[in-house]
Design goal:
Bound molecules: nicotinamide-adenine-dinucleotide
Structural class: alpha/beta
Shape: globular
Oligomer: single chain
Largest sheet: 7 strands, mixed
Number of helices: 15
Number of strands: 20
CATH architecture of the largest domain: 3-Layer(aba) Sandwich
Helix content: 25-40%
CATH topology of the largest domain: Aldehyde Dehydrogenase, Chain A, domain 1
Radius of gyration: 23 Å
Strand order of the largest sheet: 14-15-16-13-12-17-18
Length: about 475
């Protein structure tokens, strides 16, 4: 089968013997498109193309790179409704969320277009007479990228844009479940005037195409976003390869949202429901652990249930849908498995958790809210990655902070309170990479660093000007005048 949507290797759209069907989770009868599946040979050819393109691309002027990234940004923003629709069809988040994500990809390209012009170095006096020291940044080289299915356009954008801005060449392997948005993004960037081979797209299985990138000696760096278990394999392969590869991992979360007795109830409920259940709970930053002080606990749970009752779970493209379907059968099976585990552990299913029938066959799941849970239960410790959250009752702020930090993860953490003292203390003492006060744990700006601690992240931060730490390497030059 020669799929209509091909891989991009050395500036050419090339076919493959194998293709995969991209299925709409809101309507499993609908095929979004057929996408080529790359082979190991395709991945190797893509790396060779990137290697051939690197000497010239890495020496382009900031102005040349600025113009390409700016042009790409303009097209993404002009087409964000159409791109958002494609994203919602393949991933299942609502149309508003899909358009929002596509717009974000456009803004990211605009930001990094500006970063092309802002890259600077340092001139430092030497400790030796007559000697000058310069510290400059150079591109890392060939960057392999491996991305997950839950942000099909934003994550490829926030990796590709800084890589190109700082003069690197790229081979990207998007998630096999949702290749459509990444394909459309690469098509736009390529047409914005990129020389052949600077950006290559190889779609397909992680164990085949991803593995080939990890093993290739000419790939200098790997930027990975996905699960902890895959992340560990990626890191191990990068260290084992000769030469070793620079590596950046963004992985899972079990993000706490603390609600104190003095919280504004409306603000807390909105932060909890938005953070835990919107985008179908399929966000690494989802507020999946709700740690609630005893005095507000019952009012909070009741108000959350009222809010959940008013949400429409339906086809992602339908007007009025608040929450779309789960991405596919295997993720749905995982969500249902954890709902059962939470029940077996003694949690009380306070709302939801039922499979829903809609006009079209899809993976529709009612958001599930558990109460009477403890932080020791599996539902509190393991990432579900679906519309499932649990409430843990605590007596005071100190216990809330201790439980918030008692996790293997450390991506995002939030607190709802009107106390400046507690908000300030939480910001300082939370063991997460991102901290939110009176906001959901999910939902971040595109121009500031993104990333976590402990099992959630490894290596330099992504996004904002901090992205240069990964996508550049520092050179220290000494001159005797
Ligand atoms: P996953 O780990 O299953 O897959 C991620 C990517 O790795 C995919 O492209 C996959 O094909 C590839 N892959 C799988 N096995 C591989 C191998 N052996 N070698 C090389 N590549 C391989 O994750 P997923 O299910 O696509 O995404 C969900 C996970 O991503 C969740 O854990 C979520 O928390 C995490 N995530 C994290 C962030 C973040 O920034 N921290 C953002 C979004 C998603």
């Amino acid at each position: 089968m020669n799929a209509p949507f091909k891989n991009l290797i050395a500036g050419e759209w090339t076919g493959s013997q194998n293709a995969s069907r991209n299925i709409n989770p809101s309507n499993t009868n609908e095929v979004v498109g057929e996408y080529a599946q790359a082979t190991v040979e395709d991945a190797n050819n893509a790396v060779a193309a990137a290697k051939a393109a690197f000497p010239a691309w890495s020496r382009t002027t900031p102005q040349e790179r600025y113009e390409i990234l700016k042009k790409a940004s303009d097209e993404i923003l002009a087409r964000k409704e159409e791109l958002g629709r494609l994203l919602s069809r393949e991933e299942g988040k609502t149309l508003a969320e899909g358009i929002g994500e596509a717009g974000r990809a456009g803004q990211i390209f605009a930001f990094f277009a500006g970063e092309c012009l802002r890259l600077n170095g340092e001139s430092i006096p030497s400790v030796r007479p007559g000697v000058g020291v310069e510290v400059t940044r150079e591109p890392v080289g060939i960057v392999g990228m491996i991305t997950p299915w839950n942000f099909p356009i934003a994550i490829p954008a926030w990796k590709i844009a800084p890589a190109l801005a700082y003069g690197n060449c790229v081979v990207i392997k998007p998630a096999d479940l949702v290749p459509g948005s990444a394909w459309a993004l690469v098509d736009i960037i390529q047409r914005a005037g990129l020389p052949k081979g600077v950006l290559n797209l190889v779609m397909g299985r992680g164990s085949v195409v991803g593995q080939a990138l990890l093993e290739h000696k000419d790939v200098h760096a790997i930027s990975f976003t996905g699960s902890v278990s895959t992340g560990r394999k990626v890191a191990a392969a990068c260290i084992a390869s000769n030469p070793m590869k620079k590596v950046q991992l963004e992985m899972g979360g079990k993000n706490p949202l603390v609600v104190l007795d003095d919280a504004d109830l409306k603000v807390a409920v909105e932060a909890a429901v938005q953070g835990a259940f919107f985008s179908t709970g399929q966000r690494c930053t989802a507020s999946s652990r709700l740690i609630v002080q005893a005095g507000i606990h019952d009012r909070f749970v009741e108000a959350c249930i009222e809010r959940l009752k008013g949400l429409s779970i339906d086809d992602a493209l339908k007007a009025g849908t608040h929450i779309g379907p789960v991405v596919d059968q295997s993720q749905l099976d995982q969500d249902l498995k954890y709902i059962q585990i939470a029940r077996d552990e003694g949690g009380k299913l306070a709302w939801g958790g039922e499979l829903l029938n809609r006009e079209t066959p899809g993976f529709y799941l009612q958001p599930a809210l558990f109460t009477e849970t403890s932080n020791a239960m599996r539902i509190s410790r393991e990432e579900v990655f679906g519309p499932v959250a649990n409430v843990i009752r605590v007596k005071d702020y100190d216990e809330a902070l201790a439980l918030a930090n008692d996790t293997d993860f450390g991506l995002s953490a939030g607190i709802c309170t009107t106390s400046l003292k507690h908000a300030t203390h939480f910001k300082r003492n939370s063991e997460a990479g991102m901290v939110m006060v009176n906001l959901a744990t999910a939902g971040v700006d595109y121009h500031v660093p993104f990333g976590g601690r402990k099992g959630s992240s490894y290596g330099p931060r992504e996004q904002g000007a901090y992205a240069r730490e990964f996508y550049t390497t520092v050179k220290t030059a000494y001159t005797l005048a």
